[in-house]
Every structure is written in structure tokens, then in C-alpha cells.
Amino acid sequence: MTARGRLPTLTAVSLELSEFQKTYVYETRAPVAEVLADLKALETLDAKAEQKRRMLWIAAWVCMGLTVALFLVPFLVLLAIASFATGIALFIIRSRASRSDLDDRRYGLVAALLQRFQVDLDANAPVDVKLDLAPVDAERKCVGKRKRGRWDSEDFADTWLSLHGRFADGTHLHLSAVAHLQKRRRTGRGSSGKTKTKTKRKGKSLLQVGLRVKPERFPGLTALEARARDAVKLPPGARLKRLRVAEDRVELRVLLDEDWVARPPKAPRPSEVPSGDRPRPEAPSKTDASRAVTMMLLSLYQVLNYSSSRGQPGNVRSLP
After folding, report:
1. Of 43, 273, 303, 314, which is least packed with CB atoms within 10 Å of its CB?
2. Average pLDDT of 14-37?
3. What residues form DSSP beta bridges with 189?
4. pLDDT tens digits, residue range 175-218?
5. How far apart are CA 205 and CA 113, in angstroms?
6. CA-based angle 236:241:242, to the nearest 5?
7. 3-state SS assignment for residue 93
8. What are the residue ranges of helices labelled H in the chain?
């Protein structure tokens, strides 16, 4: 069959949705193409869940509006009560369905990175992925409850991503992400005598990228730790927490704000903006997590390249 007559190859989806929905943890060891197909299936599942919650929201408010109309007709009071009860039930069902509304940033980040690194990964080696899409404040992720002054505080640590792979040059990649969240709650009486409840929450995300290598290929790595910090380049919003250089590995840890994005939305082309519209002032951009990981990886490779060049007289590269 000629190339023109070939049918496109479809990648099989290995994701068992029924099993995934029990824990909301996706874990696999598979080729990149298969993982990307699974992530696409998760995206579809998430879209359906969002649509369901949206329809429940609309239906609940329709019932509430119908309740008001029915109460105006004396002999339809029973129907009004039934409509009100139905609306309340729909609100409750929607609230309970919030667990199925996945954080699209998480699977979106993994998909963006795998698509970006796919050409550099070893085609014959699978990747190991563990992706936890349960809410960050799930009970099993709570690491402590205590009193902070007048506030009741809950702390959560959510190691939601672990990814292992191997690049074509033999270097082993490990990427992990941890979300930290603190929720505070305080109940008291205001000046009016009414009981009021105040809540606060703050969080941060920790990204770690590590590369494991053969020491003989990269001599003198440990001696570069002091200078390696100058090689680290990060995007706005990403803050260096730790750099570790050992004989057989280099690792970077970076902090991001809680409201990071997997990748920024595409800016509209000039031809897509109506000529009469005035340019609006741009809102502060959120940290691009996929760019942060990419720059972390490039920074680590710069250190490795310098180390390997030291073993080649006349070909020594310099760090910034």
C-alpha cells in the first residue's frame, strides 16, 4: 500500500475509567503515545463532568424559579413545594459531584511536557507516570490539624505527580510535583451579635526535576555545585528553592504560586482583534509551569554539558 493510501494509526487507550474513578489516581508504565492517549481520555471525562455539573446548576435554578411562579397559584402549592425540594436536591447532587471535576492543569501539564520531550525521550523505553487528580484537600492528604491563635488550621501535602523516563542519551529523568495547602477557619460573633465564619487558604507548589547520569561520563560534577547556581534560569513567578549536585545526579527544586497554569493561553492574532477595540491593559500573567520545567531541565543539562566538556581537552565549555 502506498503512503497516500495508508490509514492513520490509532493509539490504544489503556485507562480503565471505572478503576480510575474509585481513587482518581492514574498510574501506568507505558510508551509516551499511550500515556498521551490516556490523558486525552481524562480530558474527555473531565469535560463531561463539567458539563453535567453545569446542567445540574441550570436545572436547580429553573426549579427555584418555577417554585416562585407556582406559589402564586393557590392550588399549585404542593407542586411548588415539590419543585423547591427538587431544586435543593439538584444543588446537593451538584456539590457532591465536585470530586469528579478534575484539575485540568495537572493532566494538562503532563501532556504538555510529554509532547515537548517526546522527540528526546528514548523511543524504546516506557515512561512511569503516577498522577493524583483527587482534590488537594482530600482527607487522605491532610498532614496536620492544629490551633493557630483563634484559627482552626488544616495542612495538606499532595504529591500529585511522579514521572520517570529516559532520554535518548541515556540520562534518566525524574519529575515530581507537590502541592501544599493550608486552610484556616474561625467562627465568632460580630458586633451585631450574629455568628460569622471566616475562612482563609494559602498554598504553593513545589516542582522537582532531577537527572541521573553515569559518573564516568560527567567527571567532577560535585565540584560544580557552587558555580551551577549561576546556570539556573527560571521564568517569572518561579523561585529557586534548592540545587543539588552529586556524583551521579543533578536536581532542582522550584517553588511556584498556587495559581500557576499548565501553559498560557494563546494571544489572539492582530487580524482576530476588531479594529475598533482599544487594547486593554494586560493582567499580571500567571506562572507557566511547563516553561518552568523546561527551563529547569535546560539549566541542569547546561551543568552536565560543562562537566562532560572538562574531560575533553581544548573543548571546555563555560558556565554563566
Report:
1. 314
2. 87
3. 195
4. 999 999 999 988 877 677 778 888 888 999 999 999 999 888 88
5. 17
6. 130
7. helix
8. 17-23, 32-71, 77-96, 104-117, 225-228, 289-310
Same domain, 152 and 59: no
Q: How many domains does the chain have?
A: 2
Name every residue whose Cβ is closer than 8 Å to that of residue 284 and which is 6 or more positions away in sequence.
none
Are residue 146 and residue 291 in the same domain, yes or no?
yes
Residue with cell 545526579: 249
Long-range CB pairs of 56-59 (<8 Å, 24+ gap) are 56/90, 56/91, 56/93, 56/94, 56/97, 57/94, 59/90
| Domain range enclosing 39 | 30-102
- Return phi, psi of residue 34, to 5°: -70, -40
Query: Residue 182 domain-assigned?
Result: yes
| CA–CA dist 236, 224 (Å, integer) | 25
47-78: pLDDT as tens digits: 887 777 788 778 888 888 888 877 777 777 78
